[in-house]
Amino acid sequence: MVTENSSIDRLDKFLTSEIGGMSRSRIQLLISSGCVQVNGKQLLDSNYRPKIGDKISLEENTAIRKPDLIPDASVAFSILYEDEDLLVIDKPAGVVVHPGAGNYAHTLVNGLVHHCGASLSSGSDEFRPGIVHRLDKDTSGILVAAKNDFTHAELAKQFAAHSISRKYLCFCYSILRFSQGKIETLISRDRNNRLKMCVSRENGKTAVTLYRTLETFAGIASKIECELKTGRTHQIRLHMSHLGHSLVGDSLYRRKNYAIPQEISHCINAFSRQALHAYFLEFLHPRSCKSMHFETNLPTDMLELERALRNFSPKR
């Protein structure tokens, strides 16, 4: 029972502190799997805030267990750099970074376990060895992974201080009013759709994105470089949508139906993921303090989209 002496926070945080010995990710999985009841009723929302007097119970379903981190050589990724402390990876679109609800295998972590064996940092929990930061499943591009806890902690400090430089390339609908600028908002979880984030006026975490237009295509679309000054979930996707220029292929944050000429609509509509690629990463090596700089080219699907947009000539 929740008492006045309880540390009342979100349900997942409350249970993590009360139970002990179980990671928050594990607790979240159990909540989403229906293993938690509040006042006799099943509750699936980790964000629920317990009230004094609430009776909370957790029955761990034996069928729900920590996913075995089975080495998987079939997981696709390219290694841009590797030493005894870290790896820099070019992740293709379609690869989930770490196991979680609904994705228990064939993740980047499974591929890293195959490549590195036990030589990965402990991560933030048992689901995420080596993982210092993430990209969405359908976002391609550069990630750094840690091979030991020292490296992980030092890289995490750089991310927390926003001293790591991260730049992305994306294609968005139409042409932005200003060719470059700064987007600064608060970002929080969307109350009506737990899969989405939203821009908030009062609640949430500060999110800052710098952008500049690199190329425009007949008023239909723009190629944009975005630089993250913070690293919030879905930040670029949400910020571009907030400006009224959703990313091509991003059905989750597409705000309206954009005017697309029929001659090019098949190409744009067929793009099956958000057109977003993490092409640039710069950080200080935790052990040598040397500046590490990495860039990658656009993946094939975004290159084909770019080529089609460049070759399109609107009828007069």
State mean pLDDT (0 to 100 scale). 90
Number of helices: 7
What multimeric state do the chains show?
single chain
Q: Which CATH class of the largest domain?
A: Alpha Beta
Assign the CATH topology of the largest domain.
Answer: Pseudouridine synthase
The CATH homologous superfamily of the largest domain corresponds to Pseudouridine synthase
Number of strands: 13
Element-by-element helix/strand order:
HHEEEEEHEHEEEEEHHEEH
Distance between the termini: 71 Å
- Count structural domains: 3
Low-confidence stretches: none
What's the Cα radius of gyration?
21 Å
Percent helix among the residues?
A: 10-25%
CATH architecture of the largest domain: 2-Layer Sandwich
Description of the structure:
- With 316 residues, the protein is α+β, with helices and mostly antiparallel strands.
- The protein has three domains: 11-58, Structural Genomics Hypothetical 15.5 Kd Protein In mrcA-pckA Intergenic Region, Chain A; 78-161, Pseudouridine synthase (2-Layer Sandwich), CATH 3.30.2350; 166-284 and 291-311, Pseudouridine synthase, CATH 3.30.2350.
- Helix content is 21%, strand content 27%.
- It is built from seven helices and 13 strands.
- The strands form two sheets. Strands 4, 5, 6, 7, 8, 9, 10, 11, 12 and 13 form a ten-stranded mixed sheet that branches. The chain has a three-stranded antiparallel sheet with strand order 2-1-3.
- A hairpin with a 7-residue loop joins strand 8 (180-189) and strand 9.
- The radius of gyration is 21 Å and the shape is globular.
- The termini are far apart.
- The relative contact order is 0.12.
